[in-house]
Specification:
UDP-galactose 4-epimerase, domain 1, 12 helices, binds 2'deoxy-thymidine-5'-diphospho-alpha-D-glucose, seven-stranded parallel β-sheet, 12 strands, alpha/beta, binds nicotinamide-adenine-dinucleotide, 350 residues
Length: 350
Amino acid sequence: MKNILITGGAGFIGSHVVRLMVNKYPQYNIINMDALTYAGNLENLKDVELKQNYRFKKIDITDEKMVGRLFGTEKIDGVIHLAAESHVDRSINNPLEFIRTNIMGTVNLLNSARLAWKDNMEGKRFYHISTDEVYGSLGETGLFTETTSYDPRSPYSASKAGSDHLVRAYFHTFGLPVVISNCSNNYGTHQFPEKLIPLAINNIKNNKQVPIYGKGENIRDWLFVEDHASAIDTIFHKGETGETYNIGGNNEWKNIDLIYLLCNIMDKELGRPEGSSEKLITFVKDRAGHDQRYAIDPSKLVHELGWKPSLQFEEGLTKTVRWYLENQQWLNSIVSGAYEQYYDKQYGDR
Ligand code: NAD
Ligand code: DAU
């Protein structure tokens, strides 16, 4: 029996990773540790919450005492660390919270693992989930590889870069058995509607304007969240200790083209006349320091570990739209109260 600690398991990607691990590995105890910030939602895990090999602990990753105790009582063998403040716009408004969780929280977990595993690191693994944003912004050509120099440009990406450096420092200095992956933009079910795709779905459904930063010419490389979860499973089990793997879908889209495609899918799914959703597109003030283009070269992961994405973009996007339309209650419970305040502050003066 292995005891696996997943941090941030109540969030978007974390909940997909928890679901995959709980269902695929009945021989593992999966402990989901999450502080349940605005982005954490236990509703995301309704289908696995009663499984025998799953447990939830409401703990902040920066809490030294609680995290240290958990490593001891649960006899943790492996960590999959996803907990983070994850939204670039929020990092522009409140950088300190990103430093606290993403840097201090990660170091606290590293310290706890090091202490708990100090007598025997055999069979242990600390897997840190990171982002392609640490590599900075690309021009028209080129791809991020695992050896691309770090050049983070937002408080979010700088805090993730800081955490990546610390994870590598614990490998080199203390011999902690770590592995890191850097993934491109995820989309799919259960994503908090502050991020582009679920925000646009929610707005189109409610006939609200769809805010596009700048001219909509920034480019992102999109991967279906379940494909990210399967890559995480592959790397957790087969990745080399001390190595980094880039994860991406070879699926670059200009924001405006993505939104046109989404509008088209929404028209079909809502039974509205073709072209009606597009009318909601509104160009607004650009994001400060907006990175122009991200694109990942995933060939190391594909060739060395045999992973590949399973879904085409249009298929994944249609699946995502259907989920949001069918899960109105999930969305409604989020888009009231604090979300409304956030939305007004973020978009009110744009
Ligand atoms: P999310 O914001 O949806 O979820 C984050 C989760 O972490 C939430 O459940 C939240 O409650 C929890 N959390 C936040 N602060 C915490 C703290 N101090 N202690 C304990 N729990 C805390 O994020 P996501 O989009 O699912 O991203 C998960 C991870 O994947 C992050 O590390 C992010 O940097 C990385 N990542 C995300 C993407 C993407 O496109 N979303 C792409 C690449 C990498
Ligand atoms: O690349 C991986 C990263 O992808 C992750 O590390 C982050 O956690 C995740 O949030 C995501 O970051 P982005 O900033 O790329 O995602 P977001 O959905 O916020 O924005 C996608 C693009 O759409 C970006 O170019 C900004 C633009 N955008 C976003 C919003 C919210 C708009 O034009 N309008 C919007 O309202």
